[in-house]
Automatic annotation (TrEMBL):
<feature type="transmembrane region" description="Helical">
    <location>
        <begin position="6"/>
        <end position="27"/>
    </location>
</feature>
<protein>
    <submittedName>
        <fullName>YhfC family intramembrane metalloprotease</fullName>
    </submittedName>
</protein>
<feature type="transmembrane region" description="Helical">
    <location>
        <begin position="123"/>
        <end position="141"/>
    </location>
</feature>
<dbReference type="InterPro" id="IPR011397">
    <property type="entry name" value="YhfC"/>
</dbReference>
<feature type="transmembrane region" description="Helical">
    <location>
        <begin position="182"/>
        <end position="199"/>
    </location>
</feature>
<feature type="transmembrane region" description="Helical">
    <location>
        <begin position="34"/>
        <end position="53"/>
    </location>
</feature>
<feature type="transmembrane region" description="Helical">
    <location>
        <begin position="76"/>
        <end position="102"/>
    </location>
</feature>
<keyword id="KW-0812">Transmembrane</keyword>
<keyword id="KW-1133">Transmembrane helix</keyword>
<keyword id="KW-0472">Membrane</keyword>
<dbReference type="GO" id="GO:0008237">
    <property type="term" value="F:metallopeptidase activity"/>
</dbReference>
<keyword id="KW-0378">Hydrolase</keyword>
<keyword id="KW-0645">Protease</keyword>
<feature type="transmembrane region" description="Helical">
    <location>
        <begin position="206"/>
        <end position="224"/>
    </location>
</feature>
<feature type="transmembrane region" description="Helical">
    <location>
        <begin position="230"/>
        <end position="250"/>
    </location>
</feature>
<dbReference type="Pfam" id="PF10086">
    <property type="entry name" value="YhfC"/>
</dbReference>
<keyword id="KW-0482">Metalloprotease</keyword>
C-alpha cells in the first residue's frame, strides 16, 4: 500500500505546480504590469531548449554513445555535465529569446515575465507528469489493480519496479519534491533577470554568469541522482540558492532603474 501521507504530498505537489505560477502572474501583473508576450516566450524557450535540444543531447550522451555513457558513470563528471548542459541550453535560450523575440521589451518586468513563463511551465509539467501520474498509480496500487491496468503496456519487471518505488519511497521525498517548486521558480526568474541585464546593456559576461549559476543550482540534484548526496542535503542547497534568487530579484530593481 502507498501511504496516505505520500498521496497527500503528491496532491500538494500538483496544487503547488498550478497555484504558484498563477499567483506570481497575478501578483506581478498587479505590481509590475508584466508582459504576457514575454511569458509566452519563456514557455517557448523552455520547450525548445530544455525539452527538445537538451533532452536530445542527454539521450545521445547518456544512452547512445558508449564512451560518454561510461565516462558519466563518475558522479562528479555526471553532475558537472548535467549542470552545464542545463545552464548552457536554457540560458542561451533566454538570451536568444530576449535578443530576437523581445527586441523592444528589455525592462525588468519583461525579465520577470519570461522567468515566470519558463519556471511556471516547468512547475506545471512536473506537477502534471509526476504528481498526477503518481496519484493515479498509487490509487491503482491501493486498489490492487496496477498489474491489471498496466500489464498490457509495460513489461512485468517495470510494473514491479514502479510499484516498489511508490510503496517504499519515504513520504518526506514526495513532500520535498513538491515544495522544491517554490525556490525553483524564483531561481528561473532570477536567471532571466541576469540574462536580460546582459542583453540590455550588451554585457555578454552576464550570460556566462547565468550559465555558471544555473550549473551550480543543478549540481546538487545531479549528485543526488548519482547517489552521491542525500536528498536532504540537495534540498537544503536548493532552498539556500532559492533565497539567494529572491535577493537577486529584489535588488534587480536598481539594475533597470
Amino acid at each position: 500500500m502507498v501511504s496516505q501521507g505520500s498521496i497527500t504530498a503528491m496532491i500538494v505537489q500538483v496544487i503547488l505546480g498550478i497555484i504558484i505560477p498563477l499567483a506570481l502572474v497575478l501578483y506581478f501583473r498587479k505590481t509590475s504590469g508584466i508582459s504576457y508576450r514575454a511569458i509566452g516566450v519563456g514557455i517557448l524557450v523552455f520547450f525548445i531548449f530544455s525539452q527538445v535540444l537538451e533532452k536530445g543531447l542527454h539521450y545521445y550522451v547518456l544512452s547512445v554513445n558508449k564512451s560518454t555513457v561510461d565516462l558519466f558513470k563518475n558522479p562528479w563528471l555526471f553532475a558537472i555535465y548535467g549542470g552545464l548542459a542545463a545552464g548552457i541550453f536554457e540560458e542561451v535560450g533566454r538570451w536568444l529569446g530576449f535578443s530576437l523575440l523581445l527586441k523592444n521589451r528589455h525592462e525588468r518586468k519583461d525579465g520577470i515575465s519570461l522567468g515566470i513563463g519558463h519556471g511556471g511551465i516547468e512547475a506545471f509539467l512536473i506537477a502534471i507528469v509526476s504528481g498526477v501520474q503518481g496519484i493515479v498509480f498509487a490509487t491503482m496500487i491501493n486498489a490492487g489493480k496496477l498489474e491489471q491496468s498496466l500489464g498490457a503496456g509495460l513489461p512485468p519487471e517495470q510494473v514491479a519496479q514502479l510499484k516498489e518505488r511508490l510503496i517504499h519511497t519515504a513520504q518526506s521525498e514526495f513532500w520535498l519534491g513538491g515544495l522544491e517548486r517554490i525556490p525553483a521558480i524564483f531561481m528561473q526568474i532570477a536567471f532571466s533577470l541576469i540574462v536580460l541585464y546582459g542583453v540590455r546593456y550588451r554585457k555578454s559576461m552576464y550570460l556566462l554568469y547565468a550559465i555558471l549559476l544555473h550549473a551550480l543550482v543543478d549540481f546538487a540534484p545531479a549528485m543526488y541522482q548519482a547517489h552521491f548526496l542525500s536528498l536532504w542535503v540537495a534540498e537544503i542547497v536548493i532552498w539556500v540558492l532559492g533565497i539567494g534568487a529572491i535577493v537577486v530579484i529584489v535588488k534587480s530593481k536598481k539594475w533597470f532603474g
